[in-house]
Amino acid sequence: MDIQQRLLHFITRANWVLFALASLAGLCLTSIDFALGIVAGGLIVTINFHLLSRTLKEALAPTSLTSHNVVLVKYYIRFLVSGVIIFILIQQHWINPLGLFIGLSVVVASITLATVIEVKRLICKEAV
User: Fold this and answer.
1) Nearest 5°: CA angle at 27, between 26 and 28?
2) Which helix H or strand E contains 72, and what residues bound it?
3) Largest CB tally within 10 Å, which of 33, 79, 107, 117?
4) Which pTM does this prediction carry?
5) What number of other Cβ atoms are within 10 A of residue 11's Cβ?
């Protein structure tokens, strides 16, 4: 498996694992609105990541190359919908904004973790 596939596979799995761990920690250790912020943010960002992944796989498939404009339109629609959802959640005071911020950081954390692991793997491989 090449490095790109390995990273994508790891990040996809790590998103759900970190989302579950952050949600459980939030539910056990914090208030309900803070925990709901973590859950809502994690769901928004993880679902967006999977939808972006699917859009790019379809667009870059050799059998049906899609215009980059279609990819951009789908991206901006997802961005707009996410923004509206976040705005409503914060405006209605259904969630804690700091919890939402933590939840929205799930994908960034999984990408950072994947990068650290891959760099460690490359350094150890060169040392041998």
Assistant:
1) 95
2) helix 68-91
3) 107
4) 0.84
5) 18
